[in-house]
Amino acid sequence: MSIQRYLVHLAYIGTPFRGSQRQIKGGTPRQHDPTTIQGMMEMGLQYLNPISDTIVFMASRTDAGVHALNTTCHFDLHRPVESVYEPNQLTYRLNKFMAYKEVPIRILDTKLVPDDFHCRQNAVSRTYLYRLIIGRHDQEKLNSCSHFMPIEEHNRAYFHCDSYFDINSMREAANMFVGFHDFRTFMGKVRDNDRLTRREISSIEIIERSKSEVGVAPSFSWPKIAIRNSGEESHSIVDIYFKGKGFLYKQVRRTAGTLLSAAVGRITLRDIKFMLEIPSKHSWIPKIRSLPGYGLYLCEIEY
């Protein structure tokens, strides 16, 4: 019998899933859970006929609707013979299974790792992207084009329409989050009162692009019939990249919502300072919206 640990890099579109973490608990043999990324990976590994149920460990937990461009997981594969699966063969077999099941999960790479390697604990940084599409329109003159965005961005970006949007205010607010802070205020739910909520955000990068730079075919993705009477500056795409070793539950989505609120003038820098200096769920300002999961991407995990 042989036992070998594998590290897998994978990407997925989170729209049809309830999250990355397995939802169905317990049971022997282990029950299938096709509604999560972990569940689909475990189902795929069953087709390799291991000696026992294979448990997949995800490097990062993502909520329902959140996407991943390059995340990781690891697992131990038990075989009844002394030989081990070649990593390239695992990549091929798992991708074949995902294609057969018609699910948006793709295996990018597979490699052998030491028995004491842990994809979550050994990670040195994680990079997330929150993607916004901003429509700049006078609220008194809203029309159909105000709420338009390319169909390929549906459930891939969060749309916000406002007559006022200041990218410099957003960047100034972002600078306040960089470094070590107690982010308890920005945590979606405190699951354990003793949980450590101090984290370090090493960088927040904000990139703004024009609508002509976005879309499968920009000249067709923004059809004139839908955005008539609107100029080149009517919409912009704002990508917010967060990099750090680890983040609290919903921290990135709530921080992105805070930055958006600062950019549209809903809150001030003083409000953000208050939430950072007095870390508590009671310090959260209700006028800030925690942004939905479908605009969030896990971009990379570094080791």
UniProtKB/TrEMBL annotation:
It comes from Ceutorhynchus assimilis (cabbage seed weevil). SUPFAM superfamilies: Pseudouridine synthase. GO terms for molecular function: RNA binding; tRNA pseudouridine(38-40) synthase activity. Pfam families: PseudoU_synth_1. Substrate binds at residue 128. Belongs to the tRNA pseudouridine synthase TruA family. HAMAP family: TruA. The active site is at 63 (nucleophile). Gene3D superfamilies: Pseudouridine synthase I, catalytic domain, C-terminal subdomain, Pseudouridine synthase I, catalytic domain, N-terminal subdomain. InterPro entries: PsdUridine_synth_cat_dom_sf, PsdUridine_synth_TruA, PsdUridine_synth_TruA_a/b_dom, PsdUridine_synth_TruA_C, TruA/RsuA/RluB/E/F_N. Residues 173-303 form the Pseudouridine synthase I TruA alpha/beta domain. It catalyses: uridine(38/39/40) in tRNA = pseudouridine(38/39/40) in tRNA. One of its GO terms (biological process) is tRNA pseudouridine synthesis. This is tRNA pseudouridine synthase. Its EC number is 5.4.99.12. It comes from the Eukaryota. Keywords: Isomerase, tRNA processing.
